[in-house]
Amino acid sequence: MAAEIKTVGVAGVGTMGAGIAIVAARAGFRTVVYDTRQDALDRARRQTEGFLAKSVERKKLTQPQVDRILGDLSGTTRIGELAACDIVIEAVFEDLKVKHALLGELNRICPPHALFASNTSTLSITEIAAGSGRDERVVGMHFCLPAQLMKLVEMSPGIRTSEDAFRAAWEFCRALGQVPVRTQDSPGFILNYFLVPFNNDAIRLVEAGVAAPADIDRAVKSGLGYPMGPLELLDLVGLDTHLLVAEALYASTREPRAAVPALVRRMIAAGHLGRKTGRGFYSYQGSAMFGG
Amino acid sequence: MGYTVLRAGASRSFPQDHALLAGAAQDGEVVVIIGADAGAAFRKLARAETRTAVLIELGTECLGVHTGEFRGEEGSNVLGFARFRLGDADPSNLVELVRQPRTGEAAVAAARKVLEGAGLQVAVCGDFAGRIIDRLVRPYYNAALRRLDEGLATAGDLDTTLRLGLGYPEGPIALLERAGLARHFEVTQALYEAYGDPAYAPARRARVAKQKQ
Asked: Which domains are seen in chain B, by residue range?
């Protein structure tokens, strides 16, 4: 465990925040999860208990270990309870104003040595840090979904992040049992910078009638050994989510491949968001396939 | 279904023994022409129109180069194919099967049956340069090489991120080193000439590798 970090705060208990909290508590850190909504905290607690119970069933953890993890994990709607944290990882909505308001409040509450980490996937770490009041101690820590299973963390220093702070966050990431990679503070970092345009290109092949979704996915899996085809993945992620991420990437890069293909907006208008609505590039009621 | 394999020069799709070659008969309903000169061999093929399907191995060219095109209404019993292969790496198990707008469904089904019967995976696509995989991966590889130059991350961290984050078997930099940067240059340059899309313009490192040859 990183010597200077004992207590971890996680702000925002959506899917990412809840997963990050599991990672921190599982690694032996006292972990305080903050969200403004008690129902969100309650739901995350139930999901966490369910996930850890399955970990016992699969013999990844023992029951005493789970008891210890749950004992180290607490939730609160009072931001003041993050005052003892040595690091706070924010996983709130991808809105710069929301993040600035949160970090500004945390800056008043937390001790001067505390690190602030952002799980943003699309916003600039430097811009987030600029509204924190301690931009030399703000670091990008982008976990992959689902955080409790995926080892990779993209770590980015902002322009004013001190090397000491970045090194401490890096060591903390390793103490979590994660695999950190260093990237520039650049739109989409590595994963989304490459994934979003690749998926857009696959959508454009459907639009252009080059091949049907199933043929594109089969080609990518058989030819390249990828675990999922891009159109299967988009159906899983949801086209509405893809639109948000791609629009953010395009707004900051203006790269044509990041621009969302017109087909995406038509499919969203038709309610074809992917698995969550039963239809996207594929139909999930039967074997019939939507050809775009 | 019986099929015949005709050899017309060195084949990129089948450089070595394969079940498809071993299972060929003397006078099958389907004719599979392999090799760099497959198109020329097709033009000399007798009774081509009487076969259930004729398959021509393609390089980077479109099928229409061999069959001709007419107002978007072209298509017959003739299909193109290529087994996907990255540079100098071994061929993958994927065959991209190229059809035209009016290609007969019976010909597509027969071709698929022959190829899948030999243990290959088939993805059907239209007659476009780059087909499916090259259209998708060449911009991605060019972007990876460009961002490496720009210092987004080290080559190792780029590869690690894409392997661990997306489950790819290999990162783009290691893959291009293994398969050949110069070969990537050739493929992506051909696509750049075909489409004029800057995403296909060869990245600096690919151009340097080609010039060094």
From this structure: 3-125 (3.40.50.720), 134-212 (1.10.1040.50)
Residue B16 CB burial class (10 angstroms; 0-12, 13-18, ≥19): exposed
A190 close to B (CB below 8 A) = yes
Q: Looking at this predicted complex, what is its ipTM? A: 0.96
Residue A208 placed within a domain: yes
In terms of C-beta distances under 8 Å and separation of at least 24 residues, what long-range contacts does A238-244 make, across chains too?
Answer: A238/A273, A238/A274, A238/A275, A238/A276, A238/A280, A239/A264, A239/A267, A239/A268, A239/A272, A239/A273, A239/A274, A239/A280, A240/A268, A240/A273, A242/A196, A242/A199, A243/A268, A244/A94
pLDDT (tens digit, 9 = 90+) per residue, A246-271?
A: 999 999 999 999 999 999 999 999 99
Catalytic residue among A154, A199, A242, A272: A154
Contact A211 B126 (CB under 8 A): yes
Q: How far is B3 from chain A (nearest CA, A)?
A: 24
Task: From chain A, pick out residues whose CB is under 8 angstroms from the CB of B162.
Answer: 190-191, 194
**A165 shares its domain with A257:** no
A124 catalytically annotated:
no
Alpha carbon of A191: minimum distance to chain B alpha carbons (Å)? 6
User: Is residue A171 annotated as part of the catalytic site, yes or no?
Assistant: no
> Per-residue pLDDT averaged across B106-119, rounded?
98
Nearest to A156, CA basis, from A132, A114, A121: A121
Interface test with B, best of A121, A184, A190 (most B CBs within 10 A): A190
Go through chain B and tell me how many residues it has.
213
Count of alpha carbons within 13 angstroms of residue B49, beta-carbon side: 2
* A284 and chain B in contact, CB less than 8 A: no
A136 among known catalytic residues: no
Q: Catalytic annotation on A121? A: yes
- DSSP state letter for B13: S
pTM: 0.91
**Which residues are within 8 A (CB) of A23 and not within 5 positions of it... i.e. 6 or more apart?**
A143, A147, A148, A176, A177, A178
B9-32 pLDDT, tens digit per residue, is 999 999 999 999 999 998 899 999
CB A221 within 8 A of CB A229: yes
Cβ of B125 within 8 Å of Cβ of A219? The answer is yes
Instruction: Point out the catalytic residue in the list A107, A119, A142, A272.
Output: A142
Range of the domain at A149: 7-182
| Residues in chain B closer than 8 A to A225 (CB atoms) | 168-170
Phi, psi of A88 (to 5 degrees): -120, 125
Q: Could you tell me the two tokens for A199? A: 């998926």
- Where a domain ends, among A148, A182, A216? A182
Contact A205 B136 (CB under 8 A): yes
pLDDT of residue A36: 97
Test B133 with A218 for CB contact under 8 angstroms.
no
Report the C-alpha gap between A193 and A181 in whole angstroms.
15
